[in-house]
Amino acid sequence: MAIRPELNLRLPNSPGALAEVCRVLADERVNLVAMALEASGQLRLVVDNHVRAAAVLRAAHHQITERAVLVVAVSHVPGGVAPVLEMVAGAGVNVEYAYGSATDAAGSTTIVLAAEDALRAAARTGL
Questions:
Q1: How many domains, the chain?
Q2: Hey, which of 17, 46, 57, 79 would disulfide with 62, CB 3.0 to 4.6 Å?
């Protein structure tokens, strides 16, 4: 488990808005670790270089906010994320939202957890 910055921005509800963000990041060689897009246009991104990503997105006129989230690699098997969630709950930390990314060749997947206290959750779980 790692604490990583999550970038948040709002996209217009128009064709190509998400593609434009992904193209801007790709042109700067920023790799997506995970992303979630809500119907409201709220886009959440975890990337390999959040400083560069935030700068290029701001240069493209996006308003960016950042939040510390937990990024966890878990086995891509039924119940693979359950032990991590149980440890976070055991630390008395509420998960506010979660999303995942695709599996890798080794059969693991990345789960992003936004918790009310990411630092305490990470410290108390020992991960």
A1: 2
A2: 57
